[in-house]
Fold this sequence. Notes:
alpha+beta; 4-stranded antiparallel beta sheet; globular; disordered N terminus
Amino acid sequence: MYVLRDMERQQVAGYQMELPLNPACHGAIGEGGTESDVSEARQLSPAAANKRALTQDLMERVASLANLTEAVRRVLRNKGAAGADGMSVRDLKRWFPEHWRELQAQLTAGHYRPQAVLGVQIPKPGGGMRQLGIPTVIDRVVQQALLQALEPLLDPTFSESSFGFRPGRSAHQALDQASRYVSEGRCIVVDLDLEKFFDRVNHDILMARVARRVTDKRVLHLIRLFLEAGMMQNGVCVERYEGTPQGGPLSPLLANLLLDDLDKELESRGHRFCRYADDCNIYVQTKRAGERVMASVTQFLEGKLKLRVNREKSAVAHIEERKFLGYRLRSGGRLGIAPKSLERAKDRIREITRRNRGDAKVRQMIEELNSFLSGWITYFRFAEGKRHLERLGEWMRRKLRCVILKRLKRTKTIADFLQRLEVPTSQAWILALSGKGWWRKAGSPSAQHAMNKEWFAKQKLIDPVQWYETFKNDRNRRGTEQVCPVV
């Protein structure tokens, strides 16, 4: 763990009163930066230095009524759980009209103090747990206000190969760029996985990057306070010396700011790469070149940015052996659905169609399946996945047949139900009297004839293939307007 000694931390914590006034060299050593950071700050272009000088009154923009009102609106729209103080998003509607002047005065005077974040762990799709930090509702408003003021200043300086958590950019644009690199013959990928990235961000190194672009000491001090706010876990407040927990509006922007150093380093070396948050893929032509890139980039990340590369999950491999943003890249730049993404979709369908879900009717299950499938297929609409979706649809309908037959329970009830769906009487009774398990019954010809694709369509269940074909036909009509290659 990269932690400063107590004396050093005290010196760094007081930087807001000690920063030099020269905007061209302001803020590198004082925030724990290195001599190279000072050199970079001093070499800012006149335009960048002038732009940075304009941030001396940034807190006034952050604390303006219009900016705070917009921040409240976005926090209300995003909803979310209450923080450590128990205040809900609904309570914010009543709180803000009465206290906005007090909040504004605290921000402009530099007296605002964030509260501890509420620590919550959720399971990762690939296994393990992800640490989230949920700020209080008021802290979320302040972070959102900071984001709205900082993003227009910082985002235009970021790399064109960075796509995550940026306005006007999406995962599909990252996939489009990656597919172009592959179509040019770069079929070896250097797949970098940063170990617990958001939990290991070094505060001093990050603050040095912020201070390169911002001169308002109140803003710098407030960001530092947000980074160092304790985490409430099991009723105990734990101090934090590194990390920018996922859960706050400001964390993605700060993460992009730190990793922009990686982007600029890769650009200076002439690499072709795509980065989405902490997921970075570099495309090369040979495995030997990929191994050299992996070694040098790992050294840069761990040496300069004090981040840790996960050796077990990172790899140099052929594109079809890895996944990127849930997709699998194929030769020629074509896109497919990664096997793990299909397994996760099946896990979600299993969860929705559990036979022991006594609290949910079949109609409710269908509504939940439609909600999940419409979003899932919309995301994977650029993949060559028709056959996968056909099999997924068949398997999903069998799961629902299994639920329906089990809930009918009695032999006569099952036989009457099948006969109403035009199954011959003899076949309906044979299935109803069968001693086979519910899964085998659901796959029988009689059950498939009764509850076929058309019957489920009448129950308003989405057919994955039809939903996918709708997007494909729409792409063909729009021609060149798509953001990913037509598949």
